[in-house]
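the two lines:
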Amino acid sequence: MTSPAKADTDVVVPPRPRPRRGVSLLDAGPPIALVVIFAVFAALSSDFRTVGNVQNILDAAAVLAVVACGITFVLMMGSIDLSVPGVMGASAIAVALLVANNRNDNAWGLLGILVAVLLGAGLGCVSGMALVSLRVPSFMTTLGVSAVGLGVATLMFAGVQPNITDEMLRGWAVNRFLGLAYLTWIAVACVLVGWLIQRYSRLGRYAYAIGGAEEVLSLSGVKVAPYKVAVFTLAGAFYGLAGVMVTSQLSAGLVQAGKGYDFAAITAAVVGGTLLTGGRGGVLHSAVGVLLVTVLTNGLVQVGVSPYWQGGVQGLIVVAAVSAAVLPQRRRNQVTK
Amino acid sequence: MKSISRPTAAVIGLTLAAAALTGCSEEAGGAGGGAEAGGCAPEDVVLVGQVRNESNPYEAAWLDGGDAFAEQVGLSQDRLTYDGDSTKQQEQITQLLAGDTECLVMNILPNGDSDTLPIVEGAQEAGAYLVTQWNKPADVNVTDYDQWLSHITYNGVESGQQIGDALAEAIGGSGGIIALQGILDTGAAKDRFAGLEASLEANPDVELLDQQTANFSRDEALAVTKTLLTKHGDDIKGIWAANDDMALGALAALEQAGRDDVAVVGIDAVPDALTAIGDGTMTATVSSDGPWQGGIGLAIGYCVATGELSVDDIADEDRAWFAEQFLITGDNVGDFTSPEVDEADFECDNVFSRSQGAIS
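prediction for all of em together
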């Protein structure tokens, strides 16, 4: 049918390079969802659209944002991390016992906070080591490390709640700078640091690459194992800091300081566009996801949804938001597991 | 037959397992109690107190109360803990009942409702004297057993109402309050909230502005309270929390919001809450009196074992009953920071004196 001449012209004119539409839409989806959900709540509730409530949302998002920073690196690698409750619990009790408190005479101040963060990093390192040296899937190693962390926390807890009297740490939750609590600024700094690591350091770029195609990376001569351990250690440090932040907010060290933050952070990361299969997303995506989840929790209370309905409604909106976000990236014939 | 097909093997396996299990439960259910009660010399009585763990201040105080009673009658108490692990609790009970049970008295905190029945049937079989507290399935009747002397629990409706009334009084009888509910599908949360509703009816000028769940968690209560503070602002004069942990979370939120004009109440009398009440930052909480709980179960068992009290003489309404609980405010908080037991409470004609009526 087609003449040879026509076929020739087809070959000569190369197709115009088109942007990878799917990827850009995938990136835009969660922020758009955030704006839409925010606008809907703002229209529904006059209490929601006050400056005070926006401050409250940002303050409430702080701890989850720091946890999400850490877990994002693990998810980017295609691993999963369930050690959050244990690591946060251990660091929360540790910091409560190291700064000025009602249980002992310690008053280490900033050094105590540093030790708690390092404890978190240490537990993260254990997860990573178990993953690469014993070749146990991250799902199991991190679950085990979580139990270890809770065990350590329970031992240190010893039946009496440590309440902190350290003015600096208590002040982090109470004092404000430009309308936001110090803790919120710490979270902003964490997101920034996380983004810089992800974007500019070898660790961040390898984490992406491991999630995208680990075999290719190792075949090209890169030793993957040390980077995996490093990523889990980094994540542990973030969880440790989050445990310190919870202690600051409650002015008491709780064994269950990290309860529920593991799945909340994974949800936030996925809602923000970080894929559980790895190789996609990043710290900024997860930060958007954290804001989305926090706005949702806050908004449902502000518009006055009954507590008996909230859990279910929140779940539905999260599923809807995730499916809308990944819609452009879904291909025909793609298998969903 | 060369081999059995896999589904057939599975069915046979399951049937065998089921048969074995039925066998077990028949063994436990049959026979029926021995000891027609009353024959033990006081010095032969063995006292056992069992709670979840000693790292919990309330349960540690419970066991201390048991020790105090044991000392009163010149005996000692075996302190058992099972770390909140149902399996471990059952193992400990089995072990106990395998020994000499003729004069064994057990004061048990079952881990959950479903853990009570096996303990009861074990005690019935072995002829040990048993008192349980807090957890019991609603459809199991204590009167069907003669070794299960009594079951003691607390009326959540009443405690919810007590702190509701204390809150209403603290805010001067009128104004807005918010409520922090517990885990919505637990009996404790439902009962306590029903108590608040009753209190609100009695105090018509107190308005419930909002109610949210914080799942009995200090951390969640912090976030929820902050949100409600931005929503209702200065209209909030008081916060009703279904337990002390949430009340303490609400206190942290108030501190961060710079509010010191809000009254906060909770339930459980945890040490931090008592400190807060002593400081004047918290208004009220409710105590079940842990040391008394530790002593009273042993006392009832001891009285029956030694023959001073007969199971047949215990009125039906004293077989499963609500015990008295105490409202703690700034006025009486000093009495509860280092609780002590009163020997008179454990006299055999006095053991049911704190009853607030049978469990309906």
